[in-house]
Amino acid sequence: MGRLIVTGLLTLWLLLPGSIQAAPGLAERVIEHRLANGLTVLMVERHQAPIVSINLTFGVGGINELTGATGVAHLYEHMAFKGTRTIGTKDYARERPLLDELDRLNAEIETKRAAGAETQELEKLRQAFKDTQGRAEQLVVGNEMSLLYQRHGAVGLNASTGKDVTRYVISLPANRLPLWAAIESDRMANPVLREFYKERAVVMEERRLRTDDSPNGLLYEAFAAAAFQAHPYGAPTIGWASDIRALTPAETERFFRTYYGPANATIGIVGDINPPDVIALIEKTFGRIPAVPTPPPVITAEPEQKGERRVEVEFDAEPIMLIGYHKPALGHPDDFVFDVIESVLSEGVTSRLYHRIVREKRLATAIGAAAGFPGAIAPNLFVISAAPLAPRTTAEVEAAVYEELERLKTEPVPAGELEKVLNNLDANLVRALQSNSGLAGQLAYFQTVAKDWRYVLKSREMTAAVTPQDIQRVARAYFTKANRTVATLVRAPKQPVKREG
Amino acid sequence: MTRRPTIRIAICLAVALVAAGGCVPGALSVSGDPRQMAFPTVAFTPPVPDRIVLDNGLVVYLLEDHELPLVTITATIRTGGWLDPADKVGLAVIAGATMRTGGTQRLGAVELDRELEQMAAVISTGIGTESGSAMLDVLAKDLPRGLRLFADVLMAPAFDPARVELATLQTIEGIRRRQDQPQSIAGREFAKLLYGPEHPYARESTVESVSKITRDDLLDFHTKTVHPNGIILGITGDFEKTTMLALLHETFGGWKKGGVPPIVLPPVVADAARADKTIVRFVGKNTSQTHLRVGHLSVKEDDPDYPALTVLNDILGGSSFRSRLFNDVRTRRGLAYSVGSSFRARVREQGVLAMRAETKVESTQEAIGRLTANLEQLRAQPVSDEELAEAKEAFVNSFVFSFASPSAIVGRLIGLEYDGLPKDFIQQLRDKVVKLTKDDLLTAARKHLHPEQLRILAVGPPSALVPLLSSFGETKEIKLSPEG
Question: Residues near A151 by Cβ (< 8 Å), separated by ≥ 6?
Fold first, then answer.
């Protein structure tokens, strides 16, 4: 019940400041190491079982993409599983010229197609492309990297791309760390973007699955695009379909070269480890990767919103709705106030939105709030999501939500409610330590977005210091009509499904 | 209660399976090429929980773990949706939800919520098809109070009328929203196709059946099916055993035994159970992809061929990146993002061997063709030596993850006891998997895989789908009721 899931990130976890914390006592358990090339390593020993979880996080994502090339961060993440000059190939020296030939043919096909070339000429080129693809395929050892990991007992091998970060995760029997270090340091230095065009088609299928055929996916996409008119947070992480189709290996590799330098990476390692051994291993492997120039900053900033925006998406599904307000980025003093507001409004069944709108008024079947969509490092949105309980409408739910937001402006939040928020925050800090992969993920995430994993500790103190007056001030400043974007999913006007016969 | 989510295995298994290259001694030495690396299987003796039975039949597993000041208690309850009367399907699910939300006879629903959330504790309850469950997650300092509330939820739920009414309304809303997501439609209609629409593994509540359920039905369902002698508790975390046992006696000791029904599932209807040919069913929805489920019923979990089918599924499509379907349908052809197979077997009823793919409508035919061809291939040819070795190594080397945490250890033992399987079931499975030969797999494939007798379920735009599907078998549309 409780929260609807925000689907803005193509990620398995929803890492929002405020919902993720670590424990008191964590401060003493984290061991930090920085390589000369800038790579950061964060380690926590947990010896319950001979296993280890690793989270390799890069400070790159959809936020770094430009118009016309949305989806490149995510497509690169897929390509990162295709191997290196040694892994995934039978003979790289023979493979390379074929890959170059494919790119040349692809460019020629695109240029000629745009120029309106004759079908026959295009067909010939396409056939040549196919033939070359077939020859290149002969030299590929399919999914060798993943196969190696799995043979060695890896579980949870995965990766995810968000607006702010891209992450590569795995859990292994603890004695297999040298395997991981060899593979990961190789792909951080020498990835080969083989099987590119096939993988691009796979990503198109991913887009159809997650967005085009998903009521939630479509609504979030339209919502973000309406709320952000300038900033890259407005574009879908998976990319617009036209952009994905036009991405090239050269462009994708350029993106990798710019953003995947060691100084832009953090490795979180939690489990049955001996930190000095791990440091020695990482120095020997990742230490060989040369430093690269600092990637360019994101230029575009979202201008202040000057009036309510409303957007509808038609889909063959029951209604759902999103209400978003622009708010500052991670680290801004008001951001901690939003964390508290999120909790007051939507944490647990006694939270205000659930209690009032689901239980008392019975207007919605589910409702939730999340501070930090679709990312955290740039100014983002505070989002309320709801599904009305028929025959109640999204309009009725919307009015009831505004009533609760007005209450935040006019009535100080009672001490008991703030105490509940803090109790749950502290308990979550302890619970976060229960999972190797969860903890590795949090450390690497906050090191990347806040430049210091200790943000989790600082954030606890800042949250504890939030007063009822802070909440009133922030509610009044941000929960305004002009700062609001509302998206609703509606059924298309009656138009029967087309049928045969 | 998945005992084998992916193929995984082995703790102290001998090194026989580890590839050539010998063992790397010492801690973390580096030797260039990852393809040449070899490691010994990690040695690990997982902790063994205590098992205690109270006088009233309540079974308790306990495993202390003092790393963090937290205690978790789970209850596995011998009840389930299989008990739902035909005209009140949904009864068990609503009972499962409202056991927690409806308060207890000692503490009203509003007060229970408030007290739990104020101390940052969680109690949750739910009832599935073949079992019920409840969970308490509490800070160690609040254990006595948390346990009291947890016991009251289990023994004396009050089913507050307002909360029951809300749960009913939310269930009906859920029914109205059933046809929103194509993947959800595919999964549910596929289960009906396999087991028949009335079987407990497939049947669904309706607005009508849910509307008939009253608070008295819930009280009655709880009184008749939730008894201490039908419950197994699993307790892990920061507690001391003697103190915990005293607390358990105090809270649960007075609870009287009751009549626990043995789980009896109706047989799978004959025409769903066996067909001599492939049949195709589709649901019309204006989607960009065809959402495909392809498969048939298979053996139970205690079948002698279960280990072989586990490995066959792993090679076919169960092991993601490593599998044939992933390599063929996704990597080489770019036809799908989501593709694979699953083999799910339980002890009380036939399991399912199923393949899935979501592919753009135009490539529906090619995708189905590849799924069935890969299934056929397992019958036509032995798997390669390499594939078998890879599957075994993955199984053995990842075995340690089955013991990753005290709750994983306790949870598995409870699941096995609940299903009447031996407590070393996964160790036995590992040992059997390690012994499998290519011939064993071929024999099992020929006996248990039936590419000519498939059930194919597709969700997609109907006018486009019909011509793409009809070559695979008798094709009919499933019309969904607008309310779900």
Answer: B19, B390, B393, B394, B397
